[in-house]
Amino acid sequence: MKNIKRISFIAIILLFSSLYASAQNTIKGVVQDRETLEPVYGVVVSVPHSASSVTTDNKGRYEISLPSGSDSLTFRFLGFKTQTIFIGDKTQNYTVMLEVDNTLSTVEITANKPGNPVSTLTSTELNRSSGLSLQDALNAVPGVNMQSRTPWGGQHIILRGYYPSADNGRTNGENFNGLVYQLYINNIPITDAIGNTVMDDIDFTTLGRVDILKGPSPLFGSYIAGSVNLYTQKPTPNETSLSEQLIVGSYGLLRSNTTFQTSDSKTDIWVNYGHQSYGGFRDHDSSHKDFMTLAGDYHSSSKNTVSAYFSYNHSVEQLAGEIDSADFYKRNPLSDSNYVKNNSRVDIWSYRAGITDKYQFNNHFGNQTTVFVTGSNLSQYFAHGYSLNNINSEGARTAFTYEGGTQALFINGTLGASYIRSNQTAQGNFIPPFVMSPFTPTSPSLSYTDAYNTAMSSNIFTQWTLSLPSRLSLTVGASLNFNQFTTQNLIYKGATSIIFLNDPILTRNFDPAFNPSICLTKVFNNHISVYASVSQGYAPPTLSEMTNTAGKVDSALNPEKATQFELGTRGSLGKLNYQLALYDLDITNRLIQETSNAISSYVNAGEQRNLGAELSLSYNIIDNKNGAISLVRPWLSYTYDKATYVDFKNHVKSKKGNDSIANDYSGNQVAGIAPNVFNIGVDVATKIGFYLSATYNYTDKAPVTFDNYHYMSAFSLLNGRIGYKKDLGKHISIDVFAGANNLLGSTYYSFIFVGQNIGELAQGTDTYVKGGGGDGYILPAPYAATFYGGFSFKYKF
After folding, report:
1. pLDDT for 6-59, tens place per residue?
2. For residues 417 and 458, is the Cβ–Cβ distance under 8 A?
3. Within 150-304, where are the H helices?
4. How far apart are CA 204 and CA 351, in angstroms?
5. Do the strands 513-524 and 528-539 form a parallel or antiparallel pair, or are they unpaired?
6. Are residues 554 and 546 in contact, defined by beta-carbon separation less than 8 angstroms?
7. pLDDT one-digit tens code per residue, 144-198
8. Spatial contact of 667 and 644, defined as CB atoms under 8 Å apart
């Protein structure tokens, strides 16, 4: 009898269990970062009004039972916006794309990730000012300095105080180029294989995220300074909309954006047309830009996503020229007459196109491959001549990933390769300074250039992270890099000019460069991590650095090399988020200019050492979306950079071959680098839609010359933006805003040239300099406060 009762009880339990199970549906899927399409580990997936929840695994996968009567799932993870999705077809897999929560510090996202940290800018940081320039946002990041030669062009990014060459390329005109770091947009290189990194034709208003890696990274070619990766905005999930933005500002600034976006479970499409014009605060300082951008993703399955990017751009930036310190500190809005008379400008037509395929073969293996083509027609007229360049590049990048192991011992890694080939047709004419502008085809020339150049840059890269017990992880990586330059002289020998090259064609293959890296990370309680790393990097010389002033190419020049040691910690302590890095970047084989028989060339004879500290802090005083004041977050960033020339001597050889030291700058501070940069700011938002951002910047004095006899004075900047953002019903959203830059009316520069001494840089008319032989060295920013205002209107279909 007891056995019968026991069997009956078990049968009843099994019956109810089967009935309960039949009332459940198992929902599977993957959670990804919407910007990068990377899986997000640790996302809490829950059923609303239920205790049922699971956590995504290291591949971003989840599997959860959905009780009968439930039709939605909620996804929560620190650093991302909480998202709830409707479950219609309970038999299909659901891929969820989480958006970064722009009200939170990016430190919170990366606190438990191994390896050297990435500095990430989201739309909050990118739009603290007008959003039209990347300069304001990047200069708030410790260890990063962005300067621009014109108000909206000629940009140059310096990472951890490292210039392309020891003289900033002053002599050969490569003011901000060189293979020292890589710049990408949506995985497509902006830096070509020749070493050009031109940003005049990038529409910064289309960006939704920027990742900055400071120092050599195997995944991006192990270039000494690192890499900067730009990502365009993504459409709002499950929304189709048309929006219009208009911004007006000081000195005739006018900007418009027309954007169409649509998104569903399979497809994201984002199209933008932007037009911008600016009158300039100096004579001959205007600009005109037109941008067309198309980006999209197609999620063909839970395993595969195909992304596309295309842009077509036209940018014209007038060049007003440099001025000297006398006029700069008198706040004179002057222009260089040589630039004005020659109608100096940078005129660029360009396109970029790329397709990325991301495929997850199984639970362990995946691949991401990008193929791309780019092209530009760049004409530049400057104070003493002109140059015309047609550049086309094509290439690909592929990376295979693997993840597997146990909870106690887990390994994930990447093995890949990249290739880019650039072709350049270069024409130029350098006019002697004593020939007065404007120039004509019959003007006497000091030298012509007419050449067809090609360059190839490729690498094989790998990086692996072994997760060990006690929350330790070891990351090791390396890249093997290949570079080649070929130049073909197109000037026939009968030309009455300097003949460039001894032979009509010269090819230089650099020896393969192997650059390893290693990093050890320890994570405490999921919120704090400490790390120590060592990495090696390199920077091959550009063709312009290999060519001396007589036109001969030095095929023996070698790449610069560097070793970086870094210690750091990052994480969250309650409402406080922080990131601290201490680094030692030692650069050898530095390219230094030497002169022999009045001919200047470069040699690998220098050494530079950069010791630095970088600190980021933010504190969420208020972070409550339901409160009247939803966010109050003050933040701080500080950079200390002790950049020193360890070995920097200029040599001169006489006609008899005797070698003598003309200058010894060893032990001096690196020119152009401010040792202290300090930023503080606050972000405020309210529930009803008002918001405010304010930023204060202090930049220390910086030497202009290698001899450290002349400095640019320290300056302070105060910028701010206020606005009102609101949804008006289901279909209409508005954002009305106004802002100002340089509210203190400071005298500051947007770009400085550096050189051996002030006489080499300054004009002969500078009252502070006797015998100046240059064209000036300071590009001034507006001396008074500048203002802007605008609105955005979005209609949701």
Report:
1. 555 554 444 444 444 445 578 888 888 776 667 787 788 888 877 777 888 767
2. yes
3. none
4. 15
5. antiparallel
6. yes
7. 999 999 999 999 899 999 976 555 444 334 445 678 899 999 999 999 999 889 9
8. yes
